[in-house]
Write a structure and sequence with these properties.
This protein has nine helices and 17 strands. The protein has a six-stranded antiparallel beta barrel with strand order 12-15-14-13-16-17. A five-stranded parallel sheet has the order 3-2-1-4-7, with helices on both faces. A hairpin with a 2-residue loop joins strand 16 and strand 17.
Length: 359
């Protein structure tokens, strides 16, 4: 079996390549170059140069061929433009989810065509066969599990996917990397969006969207508390960076038309349960679950999740009812649904309903 391995220079993808070589697979490493150098070079050092150096050292050690896939244009068109449009319209996008479906298992599939049987990555996730279909399975490490980021993949994409480290916990990955003396064995995990490197996301947004002064308004009273520099710098549930006295203050909602950010000190009170929301464009990896089935629901990457139920609405959206509150329900983010250890798919959060009815 011939395998294209997406190697980022980190320890996870490095071990994935090493394990496939150990199995005797025919492996070629690919480094995805998505760095927007024409737009971001003046903001900091190019992160891809250091990453590529680690990949080159890995391939030399493992005896694997290395190719570079230049996908800057595709990333700009399929991910950046989407993210900026969502932010401009007051929502909080999750580019990493669409990066997997549109770039790593999308544009890259087009780039390599049918030259390889499979594409392997360093994601913490598993795959299981069910008849002729494949199920996306959570990893044993609940903190590192990355099925949240893979929930937008299609059955066709999963049919060519390999996740060689999905059966390990992070500590085991580090131990194996040291056993094989991989160049990235002690390298820190990357944080933030892959195309930004060490550049602050807020600074990138300022560069793209600029600043636009508006009011900070107390949600309950309508009282003006101060000024902000653009609603796109704020997310629902945010506490840091508001610079208001007498807090803590939280971002409760946004009035996009009037460029107002509504804040509250009563964000966690009982009359704001935040346990119900509507979600659009549901994507199911296999069949949709029946309405009313109790599912596990994640609203962000990480260990935390909720139990809840979904019901289909007449316009194709979903009404999601959680069994407990979540104070960070943010329009534009993805809700990802699970049945036990199987990731079923995802939908985009539209808005929350505080008082029992979907908007």
């Amino acid at each position: 079996m011939s395998v294209a391995v997406l190697a980022s220079g980190g320890v996870d993808s490095s071990l994935a390549l090493q394990l496939l070589r150990e199995e005797g697979r025919s492996v070629t490493a690919y480094y995805l170059k998505i760095w927007l150098e024409d737009e971001l070079d003046d903001l900091g050092q190019c992160p891809w140069e250091e990453d590529l150096e680690f990949v080159e050292r890995l391939c030399e050690q493992c005896g694997a061929d290395l190719e570079i896939a230049p996908l800057q244009r595709e990333y700009r068109e399929r991910i950046i433009e989407y993210a900026l449009s969502e932010i401009r319209n007051g929502r909080t996008p999750n580019p990493d989810i669409l990066c997997n479906s549109r770039i790593k298992f999308g544009a890259f599939f087009d780039f390599i065509s049918d030259r390889y049987d499979s594409v392997a990555t360093g994601h913490y996730a598993g795959l299981r066969s069910s008849g002729e279909r494949r199920l996306l399975i959570t990893a044993p490490d609940p903190v590192k599990d990355q099925t949240y980021f893979l929930a937008h993949l299609s059955q066709a994409q999963l049919s060519r996917a390999l996740f060689p480290i999905g059966r390990f916990r992070k500590g085991e990955v580090r131990e194996l990397a040291r056993k094989y003396k991989l160049p990235a064995q002690d390298r820190k995990d990357s944080q933030g969006l892959c195309f930004l490197g060490k550049i602050d996301f807020r600074e990138f947004i300022r560069r793209q969207l600029g600043e636009r002064a508006g009011e900070l308004i107390e949600l309950e009273s309508g009282r003006s508390l101060g000024e902000h520099r653009g609603h796109w710098f704020y997310t629902i549930g945010q506490r840091q960076g508001l610079r208001l006295s007498g807090g803590p203050w939280y971002v409760a909602s946004k009035d996009i038309e009037r460029n107002r950010v509504l804040v509250s000190r009563r964000y966690y009170e009982a009359d704001k349960p935040r346990d119900r929301f509507r979600a659009a464009a549901p994507h199911w990896i296999n069949a949709a679950p029946p309405d009313g089935q109790r599912l596990r629901i994640k609203l962000r990457h990480g260990e935390g999740s909720h139990y809840g139920r979904i019901d289909s609405l007449h316009d194709g959206s979903l009404l999601v009812q959680l069994e407990e509150r979540d104070q960070g329900i943010a329009p534009g983010q993805f809700a990802v649904f699970y049945d036990s250890d199987v990731c079923l798919g995802c939908a985009v959060i539209l808005e929350e309903s505080l008082h029992g009815e979907a908007s």
